[in-house]
Specification:
Number of strands: 10
Strand content: 15-25%
Distance between the termini: 27 Å
Strand order of the largest sheet: 1-6-7-5
Shape: globular
Helix content: 25-40%
Largest sheet: 4 strands, antiparallel
Bound molecules: zinc ion
Number of helices: 8
Length: 274
Amino acid sequence: MPELPEVETIVRDIRPALLGHRFERVSLSHDDVLRGVSRRRLLRDLTGVTVREVSRRAKHAVIDVGRHRLVIQPGMTGSLMVHDRPLTADEQRYAVFRVALDDGRTLVYRDVRRLGTLLLLDPKGWERYTGAIGPEPLEAEFTAEQLGVALRRSRQAIKKVIMDQGHLAGVGNIYANEALFAAGIDPSKPAVRLTPDDHRRLHAEIRRILSAAIASNGTTFRDYRTGTGETGNFQLELLVYGREGEPCRRCGTRLTGTHAIDARISVFCHRCQS
Ligand SMILES: [Zn+2]
């Protein structure tokens, strides 16, 4: 699933094309991506609105249209783009949500397997929604001490805790694996056992890796595309994710892959991480 760097890339790409533009016609091919909103209400409340702001929160693209916020969480096979020409037959086939803009362009949420979600929230609903998500790791106010407070409360594996959106926004499997390798921390270690020095290293590595991934337009393993339809490039810089069985770039030991921590693939070096 697209994580913070991928959604940030999408948002930066589509923001200039959407700001100040009106939604002329809105259509939805399938209702199963909707959460907490009916098709009728979605189409009614979005037709004729003007885009005030486009931003990111955690792994969601947030389009502020005045009375509501349209919140899109792209799924593993999802992409969000503004097209300036008519859609091809292939583009139409998987276009789940489509908005004709006042300048003739089209905003399209495409999702082959429809694993993504769409929400439409009023100001109160948005407050509740964003209030349940943890701090943004790239914000200046986010400190190692703040991370430490969240980690000291949990006996769960550190990898699970940093991927829990209630503790920290935007980190998923790829960047959790990478940050823990860079910080030299075993992903299965109970969060409560990390030292203040671990908190400082992990905090610094999470921020460094997420920033580097944004600079590379995110990680494309299979389906992820930027807001202009390009692939990301950070897959070229991954040190552990997708490399189980291959030699550690730091010490040469074979990297271990396991599904035992959280049912997702965890890749780590048992020599460099403890
Ligand atoms: Zn190693």
